[in-house]
Design a protein that fits this description.
This protein is of the alpha+beta class. It is built from twelve helices and ten strands. Helix 9 packs across helix 10. Zinc ion binds next to loops.
Length: 318
């Protein structure tokens, strides 16, 4: 009924949130093919029983991992040309008649059900202000090409609108991770989603949709928002699958008030020492493995020894 991977997922989530109903909902979402028709209440009961059986108490500080994606409008140009043939020329900034803007920003918190969207109907400035506040409240912001596109683009619109935005954020870019760690035929989110079997992007009407949105077609804007939200859900799924295979950028054990030697991905304390090795300089390092989420990570020998002491005393310091 509850497979090994579902049980593992529940165990990770039990440490992260005290909300059993929320975990049940996550199970239903994450493993929708198995639990589509199962009642939420039945799953919740199972989660609650598992918590009692394993005696897992949730940490007080939640993991604040934010997934986000933006859609932007195009530049409108005034083009003077002697020929209608396209020479794939570069345009000049003097040709810009209308600047590109943020149309909408979709985001969700890890493990939460809801995807939220801010769009330009509230005014770009207000939308940016609202999102920058949300971004500021995250410990890690995850986007596909988020570092090179979304965040830079947002910063460009922030300076244009006089909205303050921090120069740096703690991020993880799934495109960078896909490029650096694997040889996928394509690193596009759509391809990765299909490759991992979590579904691709929805087909969208393409440029026509953008034109209609810019022309003020509300129905199309709603459609664009739904694509953007779907992308954020896909992003979280793709990240979930990539996560054990990639290095982490932020340590969520420390961020949620835990120790350096516990799992940096899911903050679980259920970890084992997997392998010892030494660097070319002769410094000992330890490869650790999280039993809950399967993340593998390195720690220093000093932290490893602290972990051993912690196992014995329940405290790092003797
Ligand atoms: Zn973990």
């Amino acid at each position: 009924m509850y497979t090994k991977s579902v049980n593992e997922f529940i165990r990770v989530r039990l440490e992260q949130t005290p909300n059993n109903t929320q975990i049940a909902r996550d199970v239903k979402n994450k493993f929708s093919s198995i639990y589509k028709d199962k009642e939420l209440e039945a799953i919740r009961k199972y989660v609650s029983k598992t918590r009692e059986r394993l005696q897992i108490e949730a940490k007080n500080v939640p993991i604040r991992r934010l997934f986000f994606d933006i859609e932007t409008s195009y530049y409108e140009l005034r083009v003077k040309t002697f020929s209608l043939r396209n020479y794939q020329r570069y345009y000049n900034h003097n040709d810009i008649e209308k600047d590109s803007k943020v149309i909408c920003i979709s985001y969700k918190w890890q493990y939460e059900d809801e995807v939220h969207t801010l769009d330009w109907r509230m005014g770009e400035k207000k939308m940016l202000k609202a999102f920058i506040k949300i971004l500021g409240g995250s410990d890690e912001a995850i986007g596909h090409n988020g570092d090179n596109f979304d965040l830079k683009y947002l910063r460009m619109r922030c300076i244009a609108n006089g909205v303050l935005m921090f120069p740096t954020y703690r991020t993880l870019d799934t495109l960078k991770k896909a490029r650096s760690g694997f040889r996928f035929a394509s690193n596009k989110l759509d391809y990765l989603g299909k490759f991992f079997g979590v579904g691709g992007k929805e087909d969208n009407p393409g440029f026509k949709m953008w034109e209609d949105v810019v022309d003020g077609n509300v129905e199309m804007l709603e459609k664009m928002i739904s694509y953007c939200e779907r992308d954020v859900i896909l992003l979280e799924d793709v990240y979930f699958i990539l996560s054990p295979f990639i290095t982490h950028n932020n340590n969520f054990s420390v961020l949620t008030g835990g120790k350096k030697f516990f799992c940096p991905e899911c903050a679980s304390e259920d970890v084992i020492m997997h392998k010892t090795y030494s660097t070319p300089m002769g410094i000992i390092r330890r490869n650790m493995k999280c039993s809950s989420c399967k993340k593998q990570y390195k720690i220093s020998n000093k932290d490893y020894l602290a972990w051993l002491r912690y196992q014995v005393n329940g405290n790092e310091v003797e």
